[in-house]
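ok new one. same drill as before - structure tokens go in, u give me an amino acid for every spot. 349 of them this time. try not to just spam alanines like last time pls lmao
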């Protein structure tokens, strides 16, 4: 997450709304192979599928916080580019998710237009696995910042992957070996702008409820708006959603469907959404920065553990990651997919 300095100039997150209880894990503890930190990661990934990763007090984490602060400033300038410029770099779903997604291009659960835009930078281009995607000049001139952020994010994801593998009595490299940065994948660095909600008509979902397709998502934001679904609850029941309260110096980490698949349902991918920011925060635009890690395109989606492959969330075990992701994306676009939390243990929020 961004430094405490960036939290100082924003309206306060209210204290009178229901928030989710999340484990806070020290990055320093993970890097030092601390047993308590490792156990906290596994517990969080079995029960909720979300946890805070505290970057503070760790040499790599402190550098990461500085990267995030710099990119938050840049993100406002990226989304502030003229619409005529952004239209030159639109994504082309389903062929490519890279580039800009304009506001209103997707729908919410009420069939109303969404209230966010994003800008995706592909890991493959940043790593040199493929040619770099076409980019606005503003981004091209600052490409080193994005590469630095991705570099540290990859290291953090590897620590999490290795920790989970060892806690599940698997070889440490089990998950990381299927997500090598030098191989083609759908991994992206994503900037998101959710628009302020000053009017009563704006007090609704901005990004529809979903689970992430990939393995691990690292998220940094300052303004609230992210909500997690209570275990066993219906996404259409407003009473079972809980707000996530952003914490200075802490990344929000959540698991995606690929980790459920690979662990035979042992780990959890939880439904979440972006709502309007709570309290006075609704009057300001909400910026987020994330890395969404996905498996290598040719990685096998066959579970790496577990005997009961009928567990929730485990499917299509003979597909490659690319085939698996395309099938899921097409089912979602056709309205055939059931959006629900997958795997893990039941949890009371």
């Amino acid at each position: 997450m961004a430094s405490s300095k960036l939290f100082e100039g924003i309206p306060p997150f209210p204290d009178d709304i229901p928030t989710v209880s999340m484990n806070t894990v020290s990055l320093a503890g993970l890097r030092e192979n601390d047993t308590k930190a490792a156990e906290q990661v596994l517990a969080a990934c079995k029960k909720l599928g979300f946890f805070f990763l505290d970057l503070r007090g760790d040499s790599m984490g402190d550098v990461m916080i500085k990267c995030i602060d710099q990119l938050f400033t840049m993100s406002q300038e990226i989304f502030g580019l003229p619409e005529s410029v952004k239209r030159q770099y639109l994504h082309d779903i389903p062929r490519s998710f890279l580039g800009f997604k304009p506001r209103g291009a997707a729908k919410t659960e009420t069939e109303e237009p969404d209230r966010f835009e994003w800008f995706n930078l592909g890991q493959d281009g940043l790593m040199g696995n493929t040619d770099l995607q076409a980019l606005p000049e503003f981004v091209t001139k600052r490409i080193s910042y994005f590469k630095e952020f991705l570099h540290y994010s990859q290291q953090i994801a590897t620590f999490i992957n290795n920790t989970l593998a060892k806690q599940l009595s698997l070889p440490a490299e089990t998950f990381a070996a299927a997500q090598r940065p030098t191989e083609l994948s759908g991994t992206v660095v994503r900037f998101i702008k959710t628009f302020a909600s000053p009017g009563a008509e704006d007090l609704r979902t901005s990004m529809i409820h979903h689970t992430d397709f990939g393995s691990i998502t690292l998220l940094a934001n300052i303004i609230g708006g992210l909500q997690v679904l209570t275990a066993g609850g219906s996404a259409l029941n407003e009473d079972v959603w809980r707000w996530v309260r952003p914490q200075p110096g802490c990344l929000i980490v959540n698991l995606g469907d690929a980790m459920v698949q690979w662990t035979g349902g042992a780990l959890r991918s939880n439904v979440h959404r972006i709502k309007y920011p709570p309290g006075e925060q609704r009057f300001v635009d909400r910026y987020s920065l994330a890395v969404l890690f996905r498996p290598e395109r040719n990685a096998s989606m066959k579970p790496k553990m577990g005997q009961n492959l009928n567990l929730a969330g485990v499917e299509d075990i003979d597909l490659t990651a690319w085939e698996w992701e395309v099938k899921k994306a097409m089912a979602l676009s056709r309205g055939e997919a059931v959006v629900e939390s997958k795997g893990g243990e039941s949890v009371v929020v």
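The first helix runs from residue 4 to 7. and btw The mean pLDDT is 92.
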